[in-house]
Amino acid sequence: MKKRIWLYLLVLFVFIFSSNIILAKDIVEIKKNIYPANILNLYKTGDKYPSVGIKHHLEKGIYLGGNLEYQQSDGAELELSSVYMIPDVFIFDFYGGGGLKVNIKNKDLDPYLLLGNQFIFLFSEVKYYLSEDQVESRAGFKFKF
């Protein structure tokens, strides 16, 4: 009788130990693929001109991004940013970071802080400019590829 109990406990222990290893492998594989390689953002500026932005995945949670906008008063603007993404918080992906806006016409450089979130195929971002004490927001469509 004691041999059977020990045999059952041994089988149970091996089953639990091996299932945890298998589950841990699956979780690691899922976590590896949780960050998309590239994210394309399409939105309109305050002047209703279409604009585009892209974020490229570098390492776990770190993205480098660039946006190209056209403002009627300021001309073309290039924004370069770096963000850290926290994926899958409930149904949202949150991110934050900083960047630099380059105005090609006026040759101005404006650093900013960036906070944003993504939901299914939508995104929204808020930029706080450090040099001008100004806040700007944008929202639009997001595509992962």
- Helices, by number, come to 1
Straight-line N-to-C gap? 59 Å
What is the CATH architecture term of the largest domain? Answer: Beta Barrel
Tell me, what's the shape?
elongated
Highest-level CATH class of the largest domain: Mainly Beta
- Low-confidence stretches at least 5 residues in length (pLDDT < 50)? 22-26
Number of distinct beta strands: 8
The average pLDDT is 84
Helix proportion range: 10-25%
| Biggest sheet, spatial arrangement of strands | 1-2-3-4-5-6-7-8
Number of domains: 2
Under CATH, the topology of the largest domain can be stated as: Porin
Characteristics:
145 residues, alpha+beta, 2 domains, eight-stranded antiparallel barrel, 8 strands, elongated, Outer membrane protein beta-barrel domain-containing protein
Textual characterization of the structure:
The chain is α+β, with helices and mostly antiparallel strands. The chain is built from one helix and eight strands, in the order αββββββββ. It has one helix spanning 2-32; strands spanning 38-44, 50-59, 62-71, 75-89, 92-103, 108-119, 122-129, 134-144. Strands 1-2-3-4-5-6-7-8 form an eight-stranded antiparallel β-barrel. The longest helix has 31 residues, at 2-32. The chain is elongated, with a radius of gyration of 23 Å. The N and C termini lie far apart (59 Å). The model is unreliable at 22-26 (pLDDT under 50). This is Outer membrane protein beta-barrel domain-containing protein. It comes from Halobacteroides halobius (strain ATCC 35273 / DSM 5150 / MD-1).
